[in-house]
Amino acid sequence: MPGYRWYGLGRNKDLSGEQCPVGVSAGIPVLGDTNIWLSSTPDRPGSVGWDACLPRICTCVWLRVNQRRVIFANAHFDHLGKTARLESGRLLGQLLREPRTLLAGDFNCSPRSEAMQCLRERFLSSIIESRTEKATFHDFGRRSDGLQIDDILFDKCFQLESFRVVEDSGPVYYSDHYPLVAEFTF
Known about the structure:
two-stranded antiparallel sheet; alpha+beta
């Protein structure tokens, strides 16, 4: 994607492996970035939290938008560890306290799960606010039932203008999840 700068590190101890990258258009000033490991030691690369089977991370980027500071974060919660998802929700709910914060991610749980309830004490859900009932995970077209495990969460100072799940139909899928697109004003 030309015209974008990319932020994020791999989830492993040596900073390799899966990332939760954030792409920022070249015209938007970046004030800083960091990675959070979803564990009881969030600043320790490669740390595995609670009952998670793998290191999980969240990439955060501080931006200047319309002369205001905005945080955009992208997270990936564990797919097996229920406690890890719950504690990851609590951790990000505590760490992402600044106004004008957006949190996108593969949360590996439904919008009404206990882990998402922790986050919804702080954020609104694009899926719930838009009343979208579409699946976001399709396993490269192999799941017909689909799961709704991805979302874009937003601070109450934002107004959700539109939200949609982009249902591509293959034959080549770029991901096992459908892209989410949201527009906000503040």
